[in-house]
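Job type: complex structure
Entries:
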Amino acid sequence: MSDVKNWQINREMQYPYEESRPQKQWSIVFDLNKCIACQTCSLACKTTWTSGKGQEYMFWNNVETKPWGSYPMAWDLNILEKLGRQDWAKNGETYEGKTIFEAAEPEEVAAHFFPTDEDWMYPNIGEDDCTGNLEGGAHLNMPHKHWFFYLPRTCAHCTYPACLASCPRKAIYKRPEDGIVLIDQSRCKGYGECVRACPYKKSMYNPHTRVSEKCIGCYPAVEEGKQPMCVQNCIGKIRIMGFISPPWKARMDNPVDFLVHKKKLALPYYPQLGLEPNIYYIPPIHADLEYLTQMFGPRVQESIDNYKTLKDDPVAQGLLVLMGSTDRIIHSFKVANGKATGYDEKGQEIVTVPVTEPLIVREAFDSELGAARHNTP
Ligand code: SF4
Ligand code: SF4
Ligand code: SF4
């Protein structure tokens, strides 16, 4: 075991390999206040990558309704129960509990569980199930207020992947150029150790090819400067893919660094597991705070407070409208004179959008043309 720095839990932790950060780290930010669970992202991924034999059950991108939905079933409850009660320090910055690597049994790499076949059978279980006791509506009685939210999930291309650490064949590797985590299909022997170890359950076994598979970060698109399919096709424009820096190298004109490090809007999910996952979420402002704190850590309230001040921040507003405005990867951005502009890696302009959409009211009757624009003016 090596001591490695994990900035999300603000301390060093134990990991089977030495710290080795990539030159760039693939990441996605999701604004959970905007996701409508249309599942276009899930289908964009499915039709691109998992329409083959043995992949029928796979959703490398899935969207689940929280708190009741989960795919595979109860993946989050299972790993949290396995870990037992753990705490953050009172200052809310440092995690004092055990990560899954530190809580591992002797001879194991990580605390883990193995989903059954049945757990993978219901990808959309719990959809739109609300918390609380709604008369004639939701059937579950919980102490929370009435709420739910949608959580889209891909592989997090973790800085400290449990899948990689657990593979006895060393078939899983993290690419130094972009931090994408891949399974070498020719080395994998299908032992399923990665399926067992990944706490987010984003490594999946293909019974037809008898090897494991996972989200590949759409690396062929990324190599061409394009965002992944699940991001390009997001109907709600809730996502942006880019490259995140560790906080000590954060660049304020980098969209992902801006949202995560500067504005402190987007948070990693279940950072306490210790993988430094690289998908980040702007938490929903309406859901139960204790539940959100468990999921996103103790900075949730700060993030929600910051989100509510965005109406007074034209730069952040500009970045939010750049989300979903282009299929290319935005490496830097600028907001000036009511316009937001995204640039590629070489500093070339990719896209410019107005921060506020112009509102044009067309008269029902055009007196110049003498024509009515509506049937019922
Ligand atoms: S396409 Fe976007 S809005 Fe639709 S479910 Fe996926 S993340 Fe949510
Ligand atoms: S989310 Fe799971 S499959 Fe993806 S890199 Fe992390 S540990 Fe591996
Ligand atoms: S990044 Fe690509 S492979 Fe991964 S979930 Fe999204 S579409 Fe699928």
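Summary: The chain has a mean pLDDT of 94. Residues 35-41, 63, 150, 152, 234-236, 238-239 surround iron/sulfur cluster (ligand 1) (CB under 6 Å).
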